[in-house]
Design brief:
It is built from 16 helices and 10 strands. It is α+β, with helices and mostly antiparallel strands.
Length: 405
């Protein structure tokens, strides 16, 4: 329920465990402790407390000593299984007798309820990050990622559609839009999340990119726009040249530039261009245009423009917007020639309609990206998107007639 609280209630899952003085794990590494108990992904060690000093997000190569306290995050079942296998103690087991008055049930268990700063002090940060559609985590499970060993990143919890998942962390297969509660060191956290394709939620204040290059990148982009507006270079040449200069100037690395290219869209467009040409050369575009002509026969130009705009808008909610424009453009040209309507006006209707994918979460990447963090469902897009689409149609149709007809 949306009660204004935080998405993750960490305190209910955090417990202090003590390494007994005679434990077989004293002198062994934290890695050996976790792997030996088959709990590497289901029991997350948030801190190692020794001699009153807290070491947050300790490395798995830390050597344990008798008397060490481990601050761990785990569900009830996973915690009990971990205790059975490792023979560690709940932190106040040794003091049960003297604390019995304060613990009338005598279970000896102690569960902390730490706030966020208790798990994020100094250069250690605790934050929420959303899995982007192009993330390498999608389809993977925590058991296969080994993030703690390879990247020093603790996955503390996972939420989907606004609810924390109660499944074992190691069994969760990540999806686009999942929200991860992660713990890690500030020096490496930003780069790690970026490499994994995760975006930190805004309220956490962590930003990607190199701030020192902001002015340079902004200046290069404004220069490219100026060259386009002045007519000295075409948009493809100016913008590609701007991207190349950014790489050469060190604003973007070669890897970042490569990852920024949306290869699936390029392949899709390469496949859809012949489809659009086939629609025109085989007469399919003319056939579809004739059906639309029957609907708009004897109608005013504004109605034809509205029909083309609305049809493109509906198609754009199912396929990529660029692909929708490629498919509908030849149909619009056929309608323009047969109804003696300005081709510019109909092509502009196609362009606007292809840019208005408000009705489905699959219509555009941004729609899918906000679905899980916002807890939206498929029908939520219709409830807001349909009125917005109607407003766009009512506003765009007279403006297109005024400027391009």
């Amino acid at each position: 329920a949306d009660d204004g609280g935080k998405l993750f209630s960490v305190g209910d899952y955090v417990t202090e465990l003590r390494v007994p003085e005679d434990s077989s794990h004293a002198g062994a590494t934290l890695h050996n402790l976790l792997t030996g108990a088959d709990a590497e992904e289901d029991v997350v060690v948030l801190a190692l407390i020794r001699d009153g000093k807290r070491n947050l997000a300790p490395t798995t190569f830390s050597v344990l000593r008798g008397g060490d306290l481990l601050l761990v995050e785990a569900g009830t079942d996973a915690l009990q299984e971990f205790l059975d296998k490792t023979q560690l103690e709940l932190a106040n087991v040794a003091g049960v007798e003297e604390d019995e008055a304060d613990d009338p049930e005598g279970d000896g268990g102690s569960v902390d309820e730490p706030d966020e700063p208790a798990l994020a002090e100094g250069d250690v940060r605790l934050l929420e990050a959303v899995i982007a559609p192009e993330s390498v985590l999608i389809g993977q499970t925590a058991n296969r990622l080994n993030l703690r060993e390879q990247r020093g990143l603790n996955i503390v919890a996972v939420a989907r559609q606004g609810q924390r998942l109660e499944k074992r962390l190691g069994d969760i297969r990540f999806q686009s839009g999942d929200i991860l509660l992660v713990q890690g060191h500030e020096q490496t956290l930003r780069a790690t999340l970026q490499n994994l394709g995760c975006l930190p939620l805004a309220e956490r204040g962590l930003r990607f990119g190199q701030e020192r290059s902001g002015l340079l990148s902004g200046g290069l982009f404004l220069t490219a726009i100026t060259l386009i507006v002045a007519g000295w270079l075409s948009p493809p040449v100016a913008l590609v040249a701007c991207a190349v200069v950014m790489v050469l100037a060190g604003v973007l690395s070669h890897q970042e530039a490569y990852r920024a290219i949306d290869w699936p869209v390029i392949v899709l467009l390469a496949a859809m261009i012949p489809v659009g040409q086939a629609l025109e050369s085989t007469g399919a575009a003319s056939l579809i245009a004739s059906w639309m002509l029957e609907l708009g026969s004897g109608s005013e130009p504004w109605l034809v423009i509205a029909l083309v705009l609305a049809g493109t808008m509906l198609l754009s909610n199912v396929v990529n917007n660029a692909a929708a424009a490629i498919l509908v453009a030849p149909i619009a040209l056929s309608i323009a020639s047969q109804l003696n309507v300005s081709s510019d006006a109909l092509l502009m209707a196609v362009a606007i309609g292809a840019s208005c994918a408000f009705l489905t979460p699959v219509g555009h990447q941004s729609n899918a990206l906000v679905m899980e963090p916002g807890g939206y469902r498929f029908g939520d897009y219709w409830r807001l998107g349909l009125p917005l689409s109607v407003i766009v149609t009512l506003v765009a149709t007279p403006l297109i007639l005024m400027l391009w007809a």
